[in-house]
């Protein structure tokens, strides 16, 4: 499934405007940071800005040599409506991990919501700077511009050493239990349902608000699974370009329709009502820093929440760095994935034997269970976004779900045909809207003939008002 080109233009434009605002105020940042230092020490900003997937970062150096990093959600890359929620959740996660684990996460020095930022640049986190290189950059192939997969030249011993470090972190995280599912901090009266990475991306690049009310409570694993599948169902129905043609619409409808019927089958009864675990959708080597092949820092704990244990007790999505929903299915990729999963499981079992409190090998046994009963493919599909039934996890789920073809046959043909007809209408409407949007962008916005907010409203307004299908 493709993202929406019109929303990509909105994302890019918002980001450029916000970065311009940052540049205009960068000379005020040092004084602002000094106000948050316990000793009010003067500081200077390092010249280079760091651009992450969702944040703009600036390193500051105090007169005593101490280093902090300022993290600001990059507007456009982060949904404006969810910036505060993302930052508050990340701060709560970092504090929890520092208090109850020895995972090397940075210390939060100061933070605030958008209305607490005197520079009017949105919510912020000021935290200690952790030395080291980006582990993801080291592991991927610099010569391959079209893939962020792990470099095939990385030898097995290096991979195992990295997996060993991450396994140690996962075992500590697995020991953190929660009584309810929800966004962090747990117990906040206005923050109940999780802000997942997948939902955030669907909103940001597809225009469909799949999150619903913050006050929505999810009491069981089954309810969480239903909630996530319903988001994919909603995106399929409401994103105008969710299908390319009639055949694509048919295949996607059938897949998600069957997926909706599988939540009970893939819910483990013994973990349905908890305990729930800390889930970070962006946890992995790309958000780790390393020095001499030792992980010195685990950073960027955004999109974290208390969720079903099954999300943690499964094959990690990051085994090959890139998210599996981005892969086309092939026997070569299948062999590579399973080889790395075997390596990880072996290392995890060794770490369980060595770490007190894990003698029962609960986590590795649950990952083995997830692999044997096919649950890991179901989890991968739930964690994907903008995906198609022919990608790697979807293909695997179809192959490993007994009776899949029978479930497909149970869908009334007239139901499928009605959906296909609706999506073809959506496709025509989307083509017309996209042509108008891109013409406005090129002929008016870039020439300064229209206010950017008017352009944003042109793209986002129909989805926000609920009249996206009005022609």
Which key features would you list for this structure?
single chain, 471 residues, alpha+beta, Aminoglycoside 3'-phosphotransferase, Chain: A, domain 2, 2 domains, five-stranded antiparallel sheet, four-stranded antiparallel sheet, globular, Phosphotransferase enzyme family protein, Kinase-like_dom_sf, Aminoglycoside_PTrfase, AGP_Transferase
Blueprint of the fold:
Elements: H1 5-34, E1 43-51, E2 55-62, E3 67-73, H2 83-100, E4 108-112, E5 124-128, E6 133-134, H3 135-139, H4 156-174, E7 177-178, E8 182-183, H5 197-206, H6 221-238, H7 246-260, E9 276-280, E10 288-291, E11 294-298, E12 304-307, H8 309-312, H9 331-354, H10 362-372, H11 375-383, H12 392-400, H13 404-409, H14 413-445, H15 452-465
Antiparallel strand pairs: 1-2, 2-3, 3-5, 4-5, 6-10, 7-9, 8-12, 9-12, 10-11
Structure write-up:
- This protein is an alpha+beta fold.
- The chain folds into two domains: 5-28 and 44-130, 2-Layer Sandwich (Phosphorylase Kinase, domain 1); 135-409, Aminoglycoside 3'-phosphotransferase, Chain: A, domain 2 (Alpha-Beta Complex).
- Helices cover 48% and strands 12% of the residues.
- The protein is built from 15 helices and twelve strands.
- The protein has a five-stranded antiparallel β-sheet, with helices on both faces. The chain has a four-stranded antiparallel β-sheet with strand order 7-9-12-8.
- A hairpin with a 3-residue loop joins β1 (43-51) and β2 (55-62).
- α4 (156-174) packs across α9 (331-354), α6 runs antiparallel to α7 (246-260) and α7 (246-260) packs across α14.
- The protein is globular, with a radius of gyration of 23 Å.
- The chain starts with a helix and ends in a 6-residue tail after the last helix.
- The model has no long low-confidence stretch (mean pLDDT 93).
């Amino acid at each position: 499934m493709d993202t929406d080109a019109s929303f990509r233009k909105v994302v890019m434009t918002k980001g450029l405007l916000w970065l311009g605002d940052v540049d205009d105020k960068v000379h005020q940042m040092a004084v602002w940071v000094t106000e948050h230092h316990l000793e009010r020490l003067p500081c200077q900003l390092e010249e280079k800005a760091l651009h992450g997937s969702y944040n703009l970062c600036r390193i500051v150096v105090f007169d005593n040599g101490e280093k902090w990093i300022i993290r600001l959600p990059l507007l456009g890359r982060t949904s404006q409506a969810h910036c505060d929620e993302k930052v508050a959740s990340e701060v709560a996660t970092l504090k929890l991990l520092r208090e109850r684990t020895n995972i090397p996460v940075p210390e939060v020095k100061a933070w605030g919501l958008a209305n607490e930022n005197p520079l009017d640049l949105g919510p912020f986190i000021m935290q200690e700077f952790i030395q080291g290189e980006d582990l993801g950059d080291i592991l991927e192939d610099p010569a391959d511009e079209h893939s962020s997969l792990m470099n095939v030249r990385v030898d097995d011993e290096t991979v195992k050493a990295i997996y060993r470090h991450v396994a140690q972190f996962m075992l500590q995280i697995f020991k953190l239990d929660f009584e309810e599912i929800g966004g962090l901090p747990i117990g906040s009266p206005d923050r109940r349902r999780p802000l997942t990475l997948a939902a955030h991306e669907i909103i940001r690049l597809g225009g469909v608000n799949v999150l619903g009310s913050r006050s929505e409570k999810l009491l069981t694993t089954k309810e969480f699974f239903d909630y996530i599948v319903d988001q994919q169902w909603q995106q399929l129905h409401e994103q105008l370009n969710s299908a390319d043609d009639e055949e694509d619409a048919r295949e996607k409808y059938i897949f998600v329709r069957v997926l909706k019927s599988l939540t009970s089958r893939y819910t483990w009864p013994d973990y349905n009502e908890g305990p729930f675990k800390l889930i970070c959708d962006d946890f992995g080597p790309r958000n780790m820093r390393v020095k001499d092949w030792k992980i010195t820092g685990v950073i960027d704990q955004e999109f974290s929440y208390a969720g079903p244990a099954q999300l943690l007790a499964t094959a990690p999505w990051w085994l090959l760095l890139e998210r599996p929903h981005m892969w086309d299915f092939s026997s070569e990729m299948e062999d590579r994935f399973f080889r790395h999963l075997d390596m990880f499981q072996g290392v995890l079992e060794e770490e369980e034997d060595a770490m007190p409190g894990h003698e029962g090998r609960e986590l590795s046994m649950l990952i083995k269970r997830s692999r044997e009963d096919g649950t890991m493919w179901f989890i991968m599909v739930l964690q994907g976004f903008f995906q198609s039934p022919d990608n790697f996890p979807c293909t695997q789920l179809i192959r490993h779900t007994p009776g899949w073809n029978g479930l497909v046959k149970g869908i009334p043909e007239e139901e499928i045909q009605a959906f296909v007809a609706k999506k073809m209408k959506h496709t025509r409407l989307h083509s017309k809207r996209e042509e108008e949007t891109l013409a406005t962008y090129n002929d008016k916005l870039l020439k300064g003939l229209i206010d950017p907010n008017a352009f944003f409203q042109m793209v986002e307004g129909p989805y926000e008002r609920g009249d996206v299908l009005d022609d």
